[in-house]
Amino acid sequence: MTAAVAATIVCGVADPDAAAVLETAGSLAAAYRARLVVVHAFDEPVDTAEDVMDVVRSAIADDRALETRLVEGEPAERLLEAAQEEGAAFLVVGSRGRGALAGSVLGSVSQALVRTATCPLVVVPPDASPLGERGGGEGSIVCGVDGSDQALAAVRVARQLGERLGSGVAIVHASRTARSLLSYVGRSSTPSLSVQPDSAERQSLEILERAVDELGGEPALAELVPGDPAEVLRAVAARERAGLIVVAARGVGGAHAVLLGSVAVALIGAAEVPIVVLPEAAEAATG
């Protein structure tokens, strides 16, 4: 009988100041009982490369299956190659986002990987708490949905993470057209569509119900909130003491649905928790 192959988490580090990135990767590796492959890629040889790996080895628990690699080349390309070679369950990187949500500037590596990664990408913003530091809320994984098939694929990723981490999943749809009077949908349930007088609000509730069905179990929270999607997801994550926010990297689900690609870009520049982004190329792996 062939032994099962352990999952692998690939983590890219750019410099010694990568504690939150390493802690997040380590928490995922523990949850998935996975090997952890930490890659430091650089465009040209630098004297500090080995120093980065010394920090990595001291930061990761001795009992964790760890492999470190120093590779020369364009960092995003080398990280993508490593993730593909390993069949990685997740690729974890940092972000050099700055400023307000509307003007977030991403590091070139995370920005490139949002477009090209073939597995879910976990981006740890500069000031984010690492996975495992926060928690204890009823909805410790917040998943944003917009009615698109891509968003439903993100729900499946959130479901798997919830099962592995022992966390509830909060499903959130942020709509600029919904009225505040009807904004709260409620925990694990939604009001009857027959009581909704407005077609935009009715569509928003249908989006939410479809995502809850895709989750395949009781969500910790199912909520329709009017407002800017990135700001809404940040606020719900803070209120629920979430450890992760999960979004698709692209997709529009209709005339009234939000574009989650732009939401992902905003969040990975400035969110307070790691962002799990599902790039287009990774959607098939969700089943």
Write up this protein:
The radius of gyration is 19 Å and the shape is elongated. The chain has a ten-stranded mixed sheet with strand order 3-2-1-4-5-10-9-6-7-8, with helices on both faces. It has two domains: 8-94, HUPs (Rossmann fold), CATH 3.40.50.620; 141-273, HUPs (Rossmann fold, 3-Layer(aba) Sandwich), CATH 3.40.50.620. The chain has 287 residues and is α/β, with parallel strands linked by helices. The protein contains eight helices and ten strands.
Write the layout of secondary structure elements.
Blueprint: E1 8-12, H1 19-32, E2 35-42, H2 49-59, E3 66-72, H3 75-86, E4 90-94, H4 108-116, E5 121-124, E6 141-144, H5 149-165, E7 169-175, H6 199-215, E8 221-226, H7 229-239, E9 244-248, H8 260-270, E10 275-278
Parallel strand pairs: 1-2, 1-4, 2-3, 4-5, 6-7, 6-9, 7-8, 9-10
Antiparallel strand pairs: 5-10
Please identify the top-level CATH class of the largest domain: Alpha Beta
Mean pLDDT: 79
Approximate strand percentage: 15-25%
User: What sort of overall outline do the alpha carbons produce when their principal axes are compared?
Assistant: elongated
Structure classification = alpha/beta
Total E-strand runs:
10
Q: What is the structure about, briefly put?
A:
The chain is α/β, with parallel strands linked by helices and 287 residues long.
Looking at this protein, list some descriptive labels.
287 residues; Rossmann fold; 2 domains; ten-stranded mixed β-sheet; 36% helix
